[in-house]
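batch_manifest entry 22 of 60
target: Tyrosine--tRNA ligase
source organism: Tessaracoccus palaemonis
requested by: lab member K.T.
priority: normal
notes from requester: please return tokens only, no post-processing; we will run our own comparison against the previous entry in this batch. if the run fails, retry once and flag.
--- input ---
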Amino acid sequence: MNATLDDLAWRGLIAHSTDRDALAAHLDEGPVKFYVGFDPTAQSVHTGNLVQLLLARRLQQAGHRPFMLVGGATGLIGDPKEAGERVMNSVDVVHGWVDKIRAQVERFVSFEGDNAATMVNNYDWTSQMSVLDFLRDVGKHFPVNRMLARDVVARRLESGISYTEFSYVLLQSMDYRELNRRHGVTLQTGGSDQWGNLTAGVELIRRSDQGKVHAMATPLLTKADGTKFGKTESGTVWLDENLTSVYAFHQFFLNAEDAKVIDYLKVFSFRSREEIETLEQATIDAPYKREAQRALADDVTDLVHGRAEREAAAAAAQALFGRGELQELSAHTLDGVVREVKGAEVDGDVTIVDALVAAGLVDSKGAARRAVAEGGAYLNNEKVTDPELLLTGELLLHGRYAILRRGRKTVGAVVRG
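--- output ---
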């Protein structure tokens, strides 16, 4: 097997592929031009998309050339969901999201050297095509019975699916053909939920151009209980720090389950096989040390947000529970912490009792007074003894933030409006 495919297989990154031997031979022949697409159906990509971004990085490091597609056209339609029609966002909104996602995607591949990456937008060619040309040149190559047999379409037939979403597969297939014609792209990657779309593109190129191209899909990552990876009680884990703070991002990976952390390391880290196997043994021998989780959280956060932001997030986690200095944290880092602990906004000076209630650490003022009297209330890691203490500006971090704690582990915050 090709060395790159061998590594990807070991990392658990190949769920499906077209003829594996033919793909291995193709990769061995020399630099391959490949593409992966991202639809702007939100203002940011998320941890599920990160699998594809890092796969593109791995393939580029192996000498192949990435084409990173942001779907200004397909984002206006949206791939069919398991349940219900997607909301149709306006052209202006989608094109604004294109710019944001493009800026995120660009950080993961290099645009220099012999195999420099290229950014493309399918709106550039789709918007120029008439309906008649689309139906004659693309639609005639798609048997309706095969389109109806697609899993997501079959599940939606009873509840209903619009022709718009039904036709999405034609648009994505046309993208592959267009990139093949324009740039010689011969490999498309994506998640396993995209496998039907990937193979449809391969088939379109075979039918219309008599060309031979390849496709490869990664598995969908799950947690130990089978639920979707990257989903939390508060929602999706985004790569945009305005939607998911760096602190919350780092904590998400730090809290990876023992049963899954090595799988995640293989996918999200660029550590060698030997390093990961050492961490795997450490997880077996001393799981309480959580060495693999720390390596995972640090590696991924460094890739997405940079080492400085990761170190600030790690320092914040230590400081929150009295093992570091809160006063040394920047306002930017504290903003992320306050969002994660669902800090409450207050107007003007409030007492410590009112702050504890506002932060949700106690149910009533009476309970807050008892916490203070029993020595279990903390303001910015300092024990509070006076229930009438007023949280004036000089007591707040950066004049705005109060990190509150009840006991050793229950943390909240208030921020001055």
